[in-house]
Write a structure and sequence with these properties.
Elements: E1 2-7, E2 12-13, E3 22-29, E4 32-40, H1 49-59, E5 65-68, H2 73-81, E6 85-88, E7 93-94, H3 95-107, H4 112-125
Length: about 140
Amino acid sequence: MKVAFATDDGSRVNTHFGQSPMFAVYDVTKSGASLVELRKLPAVLNQDEAGRIDSRLDSITDCTLIFIMQIGASAAARVTRRKIMPVKVPLGSPIEEQLKRLVEMLQGKPPIWLAKVLRAEENNGSEGGEADGTRG
């Protein structure tokens, strides 16, 4: 599964979803995690809140989880509608530490919230992947 981290330095979860200048995107499996890319968001002057949320959602549409330090209620609702689970962590949490915990959860018995996310991802994958037209 792909997992995004709201960051301004690529190594720590240290930004609010709506102000994050980039997302570090990792591919995470039971055997480990690898960086896919750092997705930098273009700076847009005078962009309203809805535009900021949309640009961030568009950049992580292929992700299953998004680790953030904070997210507003309307943004959280829009993220979950896109079948992306927001995960709040303390400011400055090292991404490597969060990845290690996530891999350990996948190797053991995942908590209910993660098991639910994994089931939804499996169901989407068995339906042909890009059938919803969001990628491509």
